[in-house]
Amino acid sequence: MAAQKALNAEAPRIPNLGKRIVALFVPFRAKIILTMVLVVIGAALAVLPPLLVKQAFDVGLFPTDGGSPNLVALAEIVGVMVALFIIAALLGVWQTYLTATVGNSVMGALRIKLFSQLQAMELSFFTRTKTGIIQSRLQNDVGGVANVLTNTVSSVLGNTVTVISALVAMLILNWQLTIVALILMPILVIAQRRVGQVRARIATKTQESLSEMTAITQEALSVSGVLLAKSFNRQDTEVERYSAENRTQIRLQVSQAMSGQWFFAMVSIFLSSIPAIVYLVAGWLITGGAVDVTAGSIVAFTTIQARLLFPLMGVMRVALDLQTSGALFARIFEYLDLKPAIADRPGAAPLPSVAPQIRFDDVTFRYADAQDDSTPTLDGVSFTIEPGQFAAFVGPSGAGKTTISYLIPRFQEVSGGRVMVAGADVRDVTQESLVSRIGIVSQETYLFHATIAENLRYAKPDATLAELETACRAANIHETIARFEDGYDTLVGERGYRLSGGEKQRIAIARVLLKDPEVLILDEATSALDTISERVVQVALDDATRGRTTVSIAHRLSTIVHADVIFVLDRGRIVERGTHQELLAAGGVYATLYAQQAVTV
After folding, report:
1. Which has the higher per-residue pLDDT, 244 or 549?
2. Cα separations in angstroms, 161 against 5, 125, 166, 167, 504
3. Over the stretch 115-130, which tens digit does the pLDDT of each residue have?
4. H or E element: which one contains 549?
5. Are the C-beta atoms of residues 576 and 590 closer than 8 Å to each other?
6. Among the residues of 339-477, which ranges form H helices?
């Protein structure tokens, strides 16, 4: 756990990260261009009211010729100002819709892309990575950049245009006062960069903690996790484990919230104090007679300067958000850059449409994380299973039986030798064509929290109810389903926990039969069942294997005594092969295993 946590904490370095983030918006460039136009128009309009304020003072309220207020001119100016406010509000609503659409579309596309990438990864990736960590990348990291994706374009562009327009207007009104207003800006920019670096480090640690919390939740609140905790009376331990990480998360969230607050407080104080300073400097300029400054100019100048506060802080906040989210984007792109260890080769062809003979030619397999000098899981394994044969693999735990079942559909890649199906090396055919002709029933049946019908249709989405019933009759489960109040619309519960082990297994067999594969792989399909359930399931399996090339990974030898050929594995090698009677007569490993189980045939 500590090693995974340390690994997860390191924000990866992604080349051209900025360009890749920008590339996410390319498919939505038309809407982005329209948004930019609206932002520029809205920002430009926002600067006009302060200039109109000057006219309202100098022309309408206090004419420079000393006359009485010009109500006609004042009414015209006020009318223009109200019209500008209405136009700006309408543009703001339109702009918000566009930015929300683009931002959430980009975020959704990024989430789909990441999910698709994870679906393409090889099986070993998921065996060595916590499910919670993977979920955190998909949910927490993508969610963490949502604000940046949604608001960055409009915020940066709108606030930047507003700031530039305001500065131009301020220069037009009085360049001396503008210098006074901006004299400390370089210091604020330098401080902003330092704060951004701190927030980026905190963001990385925060996402690490979120990943760990997600992992704890996934482990402890799954049905299996809850059963384990209750079985050992360790609920308090799980609560404390979650509480400890939650305390870490609270501390990091507070640190993240507080990082930069002194900086923004300083910016707020600085920008809020400038009007008072401007009044002082204006008074000095007027007293000295060096500059002719009207009351309207001073009011308009301070009004514009006050309008700088929120846009300027907005630009700085976005800059900080971009620095903070850089680590999150890097973590996302790190997963998007993963290369599946098992993928179709260039020019891969469909599996030949001939009877599927299975052949292993001097196959060696070693897991990627195994030591170079360790004993391989499979070492020089060779055998042939003819079309329609029932072949069984038996042996002690850890002998390599399940590995063989993973190599046939190419869920794992051989380290040496060849795996041949239908006369073709599995590395030279497309994975889709290979897996489409193979059905697998494993020891651990996985059912979705859905109806029985929905679980069955996972194999064939367009299957009719009649087809479901046919498959279930073949799997010896139709009568049981028919007795349920909701029949095929019965919810099976999380991982099928509302059903018994035998019922789940027979539904899994029916699901495979609905696929109608030519090759059937049974990976200890009855080892977790009681004797009565095993017999019922075995009947279903016997029916399912007829006419199919079958590979059975067996723990209980009673299930494979009628196999056409039995291969006995020990320490990664095939040490015996033959029929049940031949192997008993040989008096070797198989005969010893058979005697230990006290099997009665």
Report:
1. 549
2. 43, 47, 8, 10, 63
3. 888 888 888 888 777 7
4. strand 549-553
5. yes
6. 401-407, 431-435, 452-456, 465-474
- The three-point CA angle 82-88-94 to 5° equals 145
Here the tokens at position 364 are 């060696």
Nearest to 134 by CA among 151, 111, 163, 155: 111
Reduce the secondary structure of 73-137 to three states and give it as a string: HHHHHHHHHHHHHHHHHHHHHHHHHHHHHHHHHHHHHHHHHHHHHHHHCCHHHHHCCCHHHHHHH
| Mean pLDDT across 241-247 | 79
Report the DSSP pairing between strands 565-570 and 390-394: parallel
Q: Which residues contact 365 (CB under 8 A, 6 or more apart)?
A: 376, 377, 378, 400, 403, 407, 412, 414, 415, 416
Q: Which two tokens stand for residue 243?
A: 């509480």
Question: Whole-angstrom Cα distance, residue 125 to residue 272?
Answer: 55
Strand runs (DSSP E) across 445-503, as ranges? none
Residues 388/397, Cβ–Cβ less than 8 Å: no
Mean pLDDT in residue range 245-257: 76
- Token readout for 409 is 């559909």
Nearest by Cα to 211 from 129, 144, 136: 136
Least confident of 258-272, 487-501, 547-561: 258-272
Query: What local confidence, expressed as pLDDT, does residue 582 receive?
Result: 93
pLDDT tens-digit map of 213-223? 777 776 666 65
